[in-house]
Amino acid sequence: MRRVRLQRDLPVPMPDGVTLLADHYAPAGAGPAPVILVRSPYGRRGLFGWYYGRGFARQGFHVVLQSCRGGFGSGGLLDPLGDEHEDGLATVAWLREQPWYGGSFAMFGPSYLGYTQWAIAPYAGSELKAMATQITASQFRDAAYVGGAFALESALSWTTLTDTMSRRFGGAAVLTAPRQTRRAVLSGRPVAELDLASAGRPLRFYRDLLAHHADPAVPYWRKRDFSAEVGRVEAAVTMLGGWYDVFLPWQLKDYGALRAAGRRPYLTIGPWWHIDSRHGRPTMAEASAWFRAHLLGDRSALRPDPVRLYVTGAGEWRDYPDWPVPGMREQRWHLQHGFGLGVEGPLESGPDRFRYHPAHPTPALGGPVLLGDSRPRDQRRLEQRRDVLVYSSAALESDVEMIGPVRAELFVRSSTPSVDVVVRVCDVWPDGRSMNVCEGVRRLRPLDGSPGGSAGGSAGGVRRVDVDLWPMGHRFGRGHRIRVHVAAGAYPTIARNHGTGDLLGASGAMVPADVEIFHSPDRPSAVVLPLCAPRG
């Protein structure tokens, strides 16, 4: 390993006169060489500097670790997501003028640091040779309004985190922000005021999210959404994600866009959640191999197959040539009379019913959130509630492996003009534990064609509802059962639906929803699972 020289606080001018600060890590004695650019809103010292800056510089790369606008010495005001395109391209222009720039560069980083890569990758030119992105996506809008429902806990915790980090002793914000958020959501205040309860002040980005909703046509999102340009990226891309990460569905859409454009990205998905420390080591190992391959021409450490997946339930890693994995086929598991679940079509029967009351919203136990521990949890306590319908299969006679996208097609009627449809798939162990595997939500609004409306139509008030769940890579073992939850809330993961059609309940009125779930031959509600032939 090489020794490293560090030059702190280099000024990087932006076109509008603002100056951003960057630290430069250089291999001692090295001349011009490839550069790895890391742009972060979370600072550039401490573990970031040691792990990313020194870690890559010791391998012979120049590393530029820059603080995004409005934080940690960089000028201007942080407008989350809004300035990363212009600021990133200006930083690349500055890089090209440096005497140690070797004519090519790569980009690296997880989460927001990954978003800053997508913000400039389609426009950075041929000198951008490689990207290593982790737990991230080219747009965050759909994760903020998952299925049309506001992702309250993640949005509030992140805006609280960034506000806290900007103040003195902000380094502990990762620990304090989730507690502040939890206190706020239990305060009983309206969604529009929860930033006051969490941070003690209005938070601009939180209020922007509330104001601009999920509609991609809203001008606010046009400069913050780079998903339409992913197919233009010519740099070699490697992605790392987690089955329980909040951004996984949209990360996989980015993978699909690259594949549709004829690219060959690499993809790794492990048993991780967003802030899970266990993905730190594979992140650095895979990025190092990727950069050596595409900046230095050393491909010796690249694996032959581009896709590597950890199959939960089986406890093993698998390599595949692509995603979705070859040989996967969709299998419908129908909701049955008597709360059964099976591949056989449903018999004629009446609907199942429950009442959802927004004043006492159905809680979430686990599931993907941004700053929390999203590992699977035993759902039996949740399954005792009257506002959760539970459908279970018979004990499986052999192992069943499900690896791929997951969706639900349900026939639903609600007494309210707006209702959320929450679907969860669980693995029930022989000892009775019911562990969540994946979940999803769809917010139904009045049938006006607006985002979140039903994809199906209405006959007698019954709507066919398509719900996208998180993908899975899971083995349901012999003797286990597959279980499906249907509910109308997952609080505070998503904001409660007030039942009025008002997206976030600004009026304060709350209307209970009487919900019916149909499962008959003409209304065959089902969860569509990705069946694969078991290995071994």
**Strand runs, count:** 25
CATH C-level label of the largest domain: Alpha Beta
- The average pLDDT is 94
**Count, helices:** 12
Share of helical residues: 10-25%
The portion of residues forming beta strands comes to: 25-35%
**Main β-sheet, spatial strand arrangement:** 1-2-4-3-5-6-9-10-11-12
SS class: alpha+beta
Distance linking N and C termini: 40 Å
User: Any low-confidence stretches, pLDDT <50, length ≥5?
Assistant: 448-455
Main sheet record: 10 strands, mixed
- CATH-defined superfamily of the largest domain: Alpha/Beta hydrolase fold, catalytic domain
Oligomer: single chain
Using only C-alpha atoms, the radius of gyration works out to 24 Å
| Dominant shape | globular
Please, how many domains? 3
The CATH architecture category of the largest domain equals 3-Layer(aba) Sandwich
Q: What is CATH's topology name of the largest domain?
A: Rossmann fold
Can you put this structure into words, describing what you see?
The protein is α+β, with helices and mostly antiparallel strands and 536 residues long. The protein has three domains: 4-136 and 229-320, Alpha/Beta hydrolase fold, catalytic domain (Rossmann fold); 149-213, no CATH class; 329-532, Galactose-binding domain-like (Jelly Rolls, Sandwich), CATH 2.60.120. Helix content is 21%, strand content 33%. It contains twelve helices and 25 strands. It has helices at residues 46-57, 84-96, 112-118, 141-144, 152-165, 173-185, 194-199, 204-212, 219-222, 248-260, 280-295, 380-383; strands at 4-13, 19-27, 33-40, 62-67, 101-110, 128-134, 145-146, 149-150, 236-244, 266-273, 307-311, 316-320, 329-336, 340-342, 352-356, 388-392, 400-414, 419-428, 434-444, 458-459, 462-476, 481-487, 513-520, 523-524, 526-532. The strands form four sheets. The chain has a ten-stranded mixed beta sheet, sandwiched between helices. Helix 5 crosses helix 6 (173-185). It is globular. The relative contact order is 0.12. Residues 448-455 have low confidence and may be disordered.
